[in-house]
Amino acid sequence: MYKKIILPTLILFITTCVSAQSNFSSLKGLKITKISKSTVKSFTEMMGQEIENNQTTSTTTEINILEGNEKEMKAEDRTKKMKFTMEIMGEKVEYDSENDNNSGEMAKMGDAIDKPTTYTINTQGLVTNVKYDPVYEKEIKENGGGGLDAIVKGTPAPFMLVLPQGATIGTTWKATYKMDMGKSKNTYTIKSIENGIATVEILYETETSKTTETNGMDMKMNLTGKVTGTILVDVKTNLIKSSKTFSMQKGELEIMGNTAPMEITTTEEEIYSW
């Protein structure tokens, strides 16, 4: 009687439990394609005028695992394609990396296309060192630490989420990451494990403070918010298969000595294939 109960339970536990972490050397030479789609909506009110900004971005990124061993691996990212649309105060601007008719400020976005970003990742899945192409690094600085897909030292690698050893359905863990422009308190919970894929529910509590430059003017944003969503992770490799997230940030915008309330919402979906 007990054997009939215990054996199926044991089999279920084994098949829904995260096994030992794989050696990074097995990932050497792997090529990953990431397709991202995001929608960003921001709202602020400055000197009695309401300003709404809507952006949509689609990017295709190639990730190559250059080196791998028991302690770390080295990867390279290149943004291969990008489409960008922005609508603000009744005006619409667009950029398409596959279109030769881009002009003005939009044409400058092409400077960051197909530029390499190389970085190392430790066994915890965190970025320990980053080297940007000089052109892309300039764009990141102008955006106050952000860019097309800025990779930040001390934060999780963009294509990997290392699951805790022995984790199973219901396992929850937390981590805090500090960056130059703020910090993020992350909570992860495994909701299911099926066919070697873990569905991880996320909650990030974020604080952001950054300064950007637009038309020669400095703009400082101080924001707090939350990110919610799910990440699908291959339990053998810790590689991300896909993710869907939604974030809401609220705070203040400072520009030319004036302070105004600001709200930003972001919806993002990423799909990885290799």
Question: Can you tell me about this structure?
Answer:
A hairpin with a 2-residue loop joins β1 and β2. The longest helix is centred in the first third of the chain and has 14 residues. Strands 1, 2, 3, 4, 5, 6, 7, 8, 9, 10, 11 and 12 form a twelve-stranded antiparallel β-sheet that branches. The protein starts with a helix and ends with a strand. The protein is 10% helix and 58% strand. It has three helices and twelve strands. With 274 residues, the protein is mainly beta.
Produce a short descriptive summary.
It contains 3 helices and 12 strands; from the N terminus they run H-E-E-E-E-H-E-E-H-E-E-E-E-E-E.
Label this structure with key terms.
about 270 residues; mainly beta; Lipovitellin-phosvitin complex, beta-sheet shell regions; twelve-stranded antiparallel sheet; disordered N terminus
Question: Layout of SSEs?
Answer:
Blueprint: H1 2-15, E1 31-46, E2 49-68, E3 72-88, E4 91-96, H2 104-107, E5 117-122, E6 127-132, H3 134-142, E7 172-179, E8 182-194, E9 197-214, E10 217-234, E11 240-255, E12 258-273
Antiparallel strand pairs: 1-2, 1-12, 2-3, 3-4, 3-5, 5-6, 7-8, 8-9, 9-10, 10-11, 11-12
Main beta sheet: strand number and arrangement?
12 strands, antiparallel
Cα distance spanning the termini: 46 Å
| Domain module tally | 1
Instruction: Figure out the total of helices.
Output: 3
What is the CATH T-level topology? Lipovitellin-phosvitin complex, beta-sheet shell regions
